[in-house]
Amino acid sequence: MNLRIENFFRFLVKHRLAVIILHAGLFITGLLGARAVRVDYSAEQFLVFDGDAQEVFEQYKEHFPREDLQVSAFLEVTGPFNASDYETLRDLADAFEDAGLESVRWIGATDFIEEVITDGGRTVEVVRLENRSEISDSTLQTIVEPRSQHPLLVGTLWNQDLSVFGIHGFLAPDQNNDARRRHVTAVLEETIDDLSETSGRIVLSGLPVLRATIPLALETDMTKLLGIGVIISFIILWLYFRRISIAALCFVGVAPAIVLTLGLMGYAGQSISVLTSVVPIVILVVALSDATHLVVSTREAWRNGRAINEAVVNTFTSLSRSCFFTSLTTALGFLGLIATRNHLIGEFGVISALSVIVAYLVTLTLLPALLACTKDLGPYKEWGEHL
Description:
By secondary structure, this protein is an alpha+beta fold. It folds into two domains: about 1-35 and about 40-45 and about 220-385, Multidrug efflux transporter AcrB transmembrane domain (Multidrug efflux transporter AcrB transmembrane fold, Up-down Bundle), CATH 1.20.1640.10; about 70-170 and about 175-205, no CATH class. It has 13 helices and six strands. The chain has a four-stranded antiparallel beta sheet. A hairpin with a 2-residue loop joins strand 3 and strand 4. Helix 9 (about 255-265) packs across helix 12 (about 345-370). The protein is elongated.
């Protein structure tokens, strides 16, 4: 078995250029697949019920779909609702319509029934504020105060103490996707930023907004945490190896493994969930630990007098099996999560297990080819060996 493994790594070292080109091709293929991966942070992922309960929930979703499509903005006022506050709501309503939201509802687009005395008689007329060219404070008080506790208006157009007024619109069902949600959220947030300078506090809400902002927040946190981890790890490795190129080799399996994992998800039609969004950190830990172990051992073999190629073959032959079982047990640990009732957690376990195996394969095939291209694995520093 060891002879076969040794011959395999001799083959990789001998044909290192072809191996590097092959990995470059796989990387590009992974990028193409990764472009098809969509983000799905829907609340249904956290539901654990099934059977009849799941069927009832799906029927409810089918017959009452608009809850998932509603976008709302709320304006907080500090005094009696006045014409200035109304103009702020009008600007928000225009922004809702410009963003492509449908059935925009707010105080200006609501029909109110008013009793009017004309020529000694009483008549009833329908008042819609947005159709009037001028709106005064007294007109607004005439509309709002008598209806301040109306059960169909409280909780939608305003709250009970008339300190918050709302605007509501709906995404078209065929536009309820991540790109569209992000666009609508960005347009409305830009308008709110402009209006907040001259008005009360404005809050944007609704499931489409949450499903747009949560992924962005997670992406920001993921980029930050991943970046901090890479920087700190790189500095430590550079202090040890005293070679930027050798320290960089320890990260050689990270980016390709992330891209290939995302590519496989894209080709399989698998979306990114709240939990699977942390898979890149899992890959960083697994790939970096394996690569560092292998590079350090290769360096020791090279210091003991072996040629670079022989040091690579000897090290990878002796350590590939232990690295394999380390990755295998880690992957099996993640796979154990499929025993949970929650589909989201099981999905995270499967994808994490896949990413661990992908990281192992990339590291054990690409790293020896790249190490064989080096000529110097770093100087000996007594203090560095005890870092």
